[in-house]
Amino acid sequence: MIEVHPLLLLFMGELLFVTTVGMVVMVVLSILKKRRDRDAARKLIERIKSDEERRKGETREILNEKYGITDEPLESSTVMIDHAEKFLYQTIINAYLNRDADAFENFAVDFESSVAPYRDLAIPEAGVTVVHKESQTARVQEIEVDESDELKVLREENARLSEELRITMDTMSRMLNEYASMYGGGTGADLDKEKMLKMFQAEAAQQEAARSAAGMEEASVEPEAVEVAIAEEEIAPPSEAVSEPELDLLVEDEEIKEVGELDEVDWDEVEQDILESQGEEVAEIEVTTEDAAVQEEEPAPAVETPAVEPPVEEEVAASEAPVSDEVDEPEGLELGEDLEQSEEDEVIDLDEDEVIDLDEEEKQEK
Question: Which residue ranges have biased composition labelled Acidic residues (predicted)?
């Protein structure tokens, strides 16, 4: 009897156990895989059966609307196409479940047999096809008529915006080319510079014309004031007429009423006094203007011109005061002292003889 080493027996027993376990695991995995494949095939078959009526209806509608097949040819063609589709599905399922390599190699033949019903379709006559095309044309026309006004407006707006974009892009490209040639030192740089200079000059001329037009509009407002000044100069004597239209000092309404109470003989003297006071104020303004011009050239202390009271108010004050043979010059008119500070001294003397003695006139009236 042959003796075996115990370790060898132990090793062989363990190897047998491991092999058996491995084979059992492989068998279990293969069974589970086949079961999973069969479940997937079963679900596919159930989906095909549930969608059978829907696919038949779609096939029937396509054959009727697009190919114009009707009545018995339509039903027979629908059944043949349905059988061909089922045959193709069956071939794919069997090749997948059985892992059939030969069936997979011949899959092209099975596919051709499944599309044979499409090739064997009985196409109707040409007249029926023409009628069908006319119906499609009428349907397209109805769709075009049913387009909303909003869609038309949007299309017109889109076309307009596209045109504006094209014009803008052309303008920008021309401007970029001109700038590039002008600042890049190309052959047409001088010509482009001249063009740009002419454009700038034209814009400047337009701005100048607009400014001149605005100045003419402002000047048209001044003639009314000039006419009023001319009318006042015509009333005054030629020697004492006011030259500047800005100084049209008029006697207030109350002063005119007080002067209107005087006799006609005294009216000329009152008017002469008023004109003399206006002449003095004109001289003051002229001297002040000259002082302002001198101050702009050489800084000098500002000269304050004393306020001149209206001559009629002074006459009313004189009537309230006691009668005097000699009437002094008004204290507010110290023109000589203020004008001595300017370069050109222009002192205006007032005629004391022309002052009206209102007390004597009141006595005469009494």
Answer: 290-299, 311-366
